[in-house]
Amino acid sequence: MNNWRGKLQPYLLLAPMLLILIGIFAAGIILGLLQSFGYFKVIGLTDFTLKYYREVLTDSAFLSSLRFSLYTATVSSIIAVVLGILLAYSILQMKGNKDTVEYLYRIPIAVPHIVAALLVYNIFSQTGILPRVLFEIGLIHSQDQFPSFLYEANGVGIIAAYIWKETPFVALTTYTVLKHVSKKLSDAAYNLGANKKQVFFYVLLPLIMPSVLSSFIIIFAFSFGAYELPLLLGPTQPKALPVQAFIEYSNPVLGNRPYAMVYNMLITLIAVILTWLYYKAFEKVMKYTR
Question: What is the pTM of this model?
């Protein structure tokens, strides 16, 4: 009996706060779901319908926003994963004291995304630091010759900001796993004639792949659902899906609210799918930490 009390006590102590947090979250999801199906009693909508889902899913603006969000999230996440793995492996191969390097590469993780947007703007805009440096050394004759990376449909500015923010996160999670991989595995491969490249691709990479996969899912989900960077650095058209959802929600005509809720429910559905994938990847990660 005492054992049961000891096990339940932490949950009982957390219960009041958890009920509030879960209650607020669940209420928001339920109200949003009801409104997305056309039930919005405040303005007299009481009939459930799939009309709003049909209209949104066939709307060119939604499809453009979806493609743009998938594109920026996929490209930035893939590049961040590759660079993060290389950074983690480079730190692992360093000799001597690594404390300073381990501290410095984590700095971007703590920087807010709004600050990251400001940094990208100040460096890559046509009046930013990089064009001015290129102009001073004579590589360009005017700052207007510098290519426009911001507010473009190719999303380069958004992707650059995400890469700067996400690469250290991938490196952090990957490096943690690499540090705990037994050196005997690499030594055995070297004794059998493998070189550094072969050891990395055939010994270390398979071991860290579950951690890499989980990191990819996390940064992809965040990039796909984030609002700040696409708003501050993105093009007028197409807009990222979260930005388009906010615009729909901000419409002063309350009759437009079901469309906004459809956007939010679709984003939530994608987030749930990614959470499930992360859970599966986490199960694989745990196999290597036991």
Answer: 0.82
